[in-house]
């Protein structure tokens, strides 16, 4: 038992209050892997041990315990009540606290690392492991909301309810922290240094920059920096996070958003402003064109300079469009984004059209008379989810604007037949513009289309 005692001592695990074996030298946390490289337990089995049912008005908060880089990750998982006030109330403590919400790309579902939660070894992905290692404070606990941990992903009923609450959870967060990953190249570091050291002051000079001034700020009066800046920005914006579907809602809801790459921190506005500067000088400065051509193709350059456009459009559209048109717009713009579950192509966009969404059931009499939010239900097939959304959009919008979507219609999804009038939102070609005539000849009820 010497190895076991050494392992548990190194991890500094504590017994639960009242544990009859507390302090016993041979009965300390036997669920901890005894050596590096030992096989981790099955995540599904550990989830059954870790989670207990919560109410629809509750969520969970991960309390990440302090530690040094490389130490075993340890945390508590506390049930929290969602209130109208800022933050959440930790249920068992009856204490209100602020928290941060993590936004990151899940990556492949390979659970190769571990997080000790409430003394249970819970397997996690490598991406989440490194995010937590960088987020952990050396001296104080950090209160976090992380969807992969705070939602029981193996309970479809809970997941359906919690996904309906995600917009509220991200809105109530003191801050949303984006994890891009570790710093990979020197270009990443150069770009992050530029963003953090130059833009916070200079972006306040004027919101509308003339070409000459934009070139000066973008290059810091030194054109030889163009190449490194473009390469670094391209490297950052090519991270998986920027292509995630859920990013649209998380950015939309965030009161304050901080981007983290390794231990470097960049404000959302700083990254957006850097993209704006480069967009301003692109095509107008030969030195810029020459430097950019050496590190990125013109097509890819345009893509990276347009990053975030869909999010900005969503923020603008929210105040201008009906719920039906807004949902359809967000579905179209997110068509090229990545998600592991096709149902999330609908569920991940609902929050931006419904700030009051509960994820429980369709409201029979919504205030605007236009139809309540489609229910979130992960037990339904992808075909059913797509058809429900299409039907709701046409009923709410009272027009056939849906049929103008630049997407494939009908076909087969997971062995089921998609109705001919329903877009396959997995295959959206480009952003759809609403035609003026959709408010004319097709502006009528459309029950007869649902055949």
Structure keywords:
single chain; 451 residues; alpha/beta; 3 domains; eleven-stranded mixed beta sheet; two-stranded antiparallel sheet; 17 helices; 13 strands; globular; disordered N terminus; disordered C terminus
Concise overview:
The chain has 451 residues and is of the alpha/beta class.
Strand content: 15-25%
Question: Low-confidence runs (pLDDT<50, min 5 residues)?
Answer: 1-36, 200-209, 307-314, 356-370, 431-451
Number of strands: 13
Radius of gyration: 24 Å
The tally of structural domains comes to 3
| Mean residue pLDDT | 72
Protein name: Uu.00g001280.m01.CDS01
Domain Heterokaryon incompatibility: 99-250
Organism: Anthostomella pinea
Description:
The protein is globular. A hairpin with a 4-residue loop joins strand 3 and strand 4. The chain contains 17 helices and 13 strands. The protein folds into three domains: 40-173, no CATH class; 180-307, no CATH class; 322-449, no CATH class. Residues 1-36, 200-209, 307-314, 356-370 and 431-451 have low confidence and may be disordered. It is an alpha/beta fold and 451 residues long. The strands form two sheets. Strands 1, 2, 3, 4, 5, 6, 7, 8, 9, 10 and 11 form an eleven-stranded mixed β-sheet that branches. Strands 12-13 form a two-stranded antiparallel sheet. It comes from Anthostomella pinea. This is Uu.00g001280.m01.CDS01. Residues 99-250 form the Heterokaryon incompatibility domain. It holds the Pfam family HET.
